[in-house]
Amino acid sequence: MSVTTDTAYGMKKTVALGYDEAVEKVRGALKDQGFGVLTEIDIKEKMKEKLGVDFQRYIILGACNPPLAHKALLAEPDIGLLLPCNVIVYEHGERESVVAAADPEAMMQVTGNEILRTVAEDAKARLRKALANV
Q1: Residue 60's beta-bridge partner residues?
Q2: CB burial of residue 23 (10 Å; 0-12, 13-18, 19+)
């Protein structure tokens, strides 16, 4: 059993899953919480392509919950600068992976907008559930 730990800007846990399985489970857990994946950045691939260096398997998923994003954009059109919610998965040895998500509350705190605070609370609760289900 793994424990989710919080940082100043995110939530993360180490899981006893290989990288490919962890990515698959994260996708499913996000979907179960109403998130779709809008963007994917394969960091290993980009490091090789742009710098010619080898890097561990590492992916950034740009997750979006459409109803929450809609509320946020109505409350403050420029909030797109802080969207979508980034979720990462990277290998941590052969049989473990780290799964982490940006903390929407920390991201939205800079706005001082009360509506965005409530949207962020909902998004954080959903992301925390998704991480718990990986």
Answers
A1: 41, 88
A2: buried
Q: Which domain holds residue 110?
A: 5-132
Give the count of domains, the chain. 1
Per-residue model confidence as pLDDT tens digits over 18-64? 999 999 999 999 999 999 999 999 999 999 999 999 999 999 999 99
Question: Strands 10-15 and 5-6: what pairing?
Answer: antiparallel
Phi-psi region of 12 (alpha: psi -120 to 50; beta: other; left: phi over 0): beta
CB 122 within 8 A of CB 34: no
Give Dmax (Cα) for the chain: 45
Token reading at 11: 């939530």
> Could you give phi then psi for residue 38, rounded to 5 degrees?
-90, -35
- The domain that holds 66 is classified in CATH as 3.30.310.70
